[in-house]
Specification:
The structure is a single chain. The chain is built from 15 helices and five strands. The chain has helices spanning about 5-25, 50-60, 80-95, 105-110, 125-145, 170-190, 190-195, 200-225, 260-270, 275-290, 290-305, 315-335, 345-355, 360-370, 380-390; strands spanning about 30, 35-40, 165, 230-235, 240. About 55% of the residues lie in helices and about 5% in strands. The longest helix is centred in the middle third of the chain and has 27 residues, at about 200-225. The chain starts with 5 loop residues before the first helix and ends with a helix. The strands form two sheets. The protein has a three-stranded mixed beta sheet with strand order 3-5-4.
Amino acid sequence: MPSRGPARQIVSIFFHFMYFSAKISSKDRDCLVCGEATHIAHLGINLCRACAVFYRRAKLSHDFVCRTTTGSCPPGKGFNCKRCRYDHIVSLLERAGVLNTSDVSEESAHSNISSCSSEKTERPFLERVKTHYKAMSLHRHNSELNSRPNPPHPLEVSLEKGPFYPADFASMTSSVRILMSAALDFGANAFPDFARLEAAEKWELAMNFFYLFRMFEACYRTSKIFTREDKKYFVSYSTYFTVPFDKNFFNTAPQGADLQGVYQHMVSMTSGDQLPLLHHHVDLFTRLNLSEEEFITVAVLMFWTTSDLNVSEEIHQLGERIRGDILKELYAFYREEMGLVDYAVRLGELMMVMQMFEKKEEMKEHYETLRLYNIMKDDNFIYRLQKDLKIE
């Protein structure tokens, strides 16, 4: 069965960057030390054979003196200072995480190699989105806590430490409204082009983001804050579900709701296939241990996944450009911070995570079921939200 909508777009992103990576790896690249062309990356980094041989010999005895006495001769073609050449290779290997420290003497380990390392690529897009995601998180956390009957003292509030509370029906509805409001502000602040869109287009993107991002973020934060033994799973920024399902969740349900029926429905869901699936998701996040940069990148990709939305061609093209921009900065992060030359496998894992949360149809069906139990009325914000979302 062919993949549809966001799945096609996710697969397209992945293969585009697989192709880009293959193009890079299949042609000659410049040696990071001497600047000469090399077809093979030696020692796990872009190092030519001559520099690799020099390093292997020099690490046995490297009593060299800098030719300029500065200890910072610039690398590149004509680089013939043995002291700085050796120190620069050591610096590159350390940053790539492939240096065997036992091969380097104490003198080399304490030498001033930082001055020889190449400048890092600036990542303004990632940094801007990070800043505005944190602002969105603070807004959501504080708004959710202050909407509680007995909110905690402001000095007791922390994004990392909570306090966090068991979810109930009223808090869940309120948190969704807060998230949607915050998502619109996030979009306008993080993406200048978003602020210029028509109101209906902004709402379409924000709704789509809600369905893709909400549980992705919940699993990510669950893996960072709770343990498997806690049996707690975030469902909003400040509230969580517990396993087994807490019957008190429906204490704030509207009058006339079939409480016994919906409780049995939720118990059946959480004790059946859903619980192992939830454990799988959280365990996967724990194993992958996504960096903040990877988390932010996925958030941007989800915000601008437009393939099955009823929006203009201009917005589809805008989304494609923004997705490309954030992935370029992620690649720079992989290369310079994580030491990954071949990042295709890691990127593929991110795309797999994205596809796991393509659950709009399932969520719409779930809310319709709750409507049948009179848990959600026609004017309930969450129910109206799923009614408004049109999937092509």
